[in-house]
Specification:
The protein is mostly helical. It is built from nine helices and no strands.
Length: about 260
Amino acid sequence: MGVDRGYRESEIVKKALFSQKIKAIMYGFSASIIISWTFYDSAWAMILSPVIIYLTYRILIKYFFKEMYEKILIEYQDFLNGIVTWISSGSSIEKAFLREEGELLNYLGEESLILTELKKVNSKVRMNEPIERAFYEFARYFDIDEIWEFAEIFIFSKRLGGDYSKNMRLCADRIGEVLEVRREIVSQTVEKRTEVKSLALISIFLLLFIKKSSYDFVSPLYHSLAGILVMSAALIIYLVAIWLAIRIIESGEEDCY
């Protein structure tokens, strides 16, 4: 449909992204310290920190945009239900959009992810632009299938005099079903994610315990070329194993986004 998800460039998302960058630096730097001490027993291994910070940032951003995507769908579902209510009470579609803008502002405030674009739709309508064309731009900005789906129906309904209320209710119900399926999938994978995290931490703690209690036993693994190669191989295997476990868990979720 669209070529870019413009909401990713909104001020609200940019502010949230900044906090994700700070988190990535903190988490990545902490992970670098742990890896340096656990696998190499040397501060020189901190040269890996930029790579670790970058990978941490990529992971955080991936989950961040999944959350944004779901929040937009939830707001959009509420928006459609609100429009249905206004139309059912006798308002025109144009007035329903205006009133729902006020409702979103009262309910979510300026932190709403769709409010800014809804304001643009209403501003265009005030300038005598057809509401279906303005809403098409709204859908193009977000570039999300569920929003596109109703935008296309809305354009034809407006031209042919279709039942807005019925179409909006059906679209809102479908979004609710999609969100429910996603929640079920995520809830089913929570236990597996916890297991992966536990195994990842146990491996580190076990190595730290051996290093602390029996350093003479593992000392040949440190401060020698052979030891560095062995520990580097172990680190790579450790990270690949975690990555594979995460990929297997995520494979069941990716189709939902």
